[in-house]
Amino acid sequence: MSCVKEAHGTVVVNGALVIESNIDGPFFGWSGSTVFKLANGQVWEQDAPARTYHFAYRPNLRITEIDHTYLMEVDGVGSIKVRRVDDFIESHIEGAFNGWDGKTFFQLANGQIWQQSVYAYHYQHAYRPEVLIYLSKGEWKLKVDGVHETVRVTRIK
């Protein structure tokens, strides 16, 4: 067995990449298209249809590459196929956030403005929540901290 340490939390075992980290914040399980920001700064998205509820705060995980496929194993939950997200933006919503309702605009602290591009409704109030906007299969999605769902968006400014 050959094992080479590449970077903090990343090793190559017998030619396969293995990443050990933890989820940066709460974990609620798999929802069909869950996106995860890791403590090491990487972002990963669920890439297999599965749903399960399991709450844990900052659970440990391991991502293993097997034949160009990545499997994420979360402590106490099991594993699921994931893909790495390379194009993403992190910011905060300026002022109050009240969810989305069809054509909602999102003014970010970094000066960008995004608009909801597909109808969906979700109500939740928060003040200046963190957001992660990421490219998923050619579409931009917005994930608000503390909200389980994502919404598709288009950049306006």
Key attributes of the depicted protein:
disordered N terminus; 18 strands; six-stranded antiparallel β-sheet; mainly beta; eight-stranded antiparallel β-sheet; single chain; elongated
Structural description of this entry:
The protein has 157 residues and is mainly β. It has 2 domains: 3-85, no CATH class; 88-155, no CATH class. Helix content is 0%, strand content 59%. It contains no helices and 18 strands. The strands form 4 sheets. An 8-stranded antiparallel beta sheet has the order 1-2-3-8-9-10-6-5, with no helix packed on it. The radius of gyration is 17 Å and the shape is elongated. The model is unreliable at 1-7 (pLDDT under 50).
Largest sheet: 8 strands, antiparallel
The geometry reads as: elongated
Tally of DSSP β-strands: 18
What portion of residues belong to β-strands? over 45%
Whole-number count of domains: 2
Proportion in helices: under 10%
Helix-strand pattern, N to C? EEEEEEEEEEEEEEEEEE
Mean pLDDT level: 91
Mind telling me the C-alpha Rg? 17 Å
* Helix/strand class: mainly beta
Q: What separation lies between the terminal Cα atoms? A: 51 Å
Uncertain segments are 1-7
How many helix segments?
0
- The strands making up the biggest β-sheet line up spatially as 1-2-3-8-9-10-6-5
List the helices and strands and how they pair.
Elements: E1 3-7, E2 10-13, E3 16-22, E4 26-31, E5 35-37, E6 43-46, E7 51-57, E8 60-66, E9 69-74, E10 78-85, E11 88-92, E12 96-97, E13 105-107, E14 113-116, E15 126-127, E16 130-136, E17 139-144, E18 150-155
Antiparallel strand pairs: 1-2, 2-3, 3-8, 4-7, 5-6, 6-10, 8-9, 9-10, 11-16, 12-15, 13-14, 14-18, 16-17, 17-18
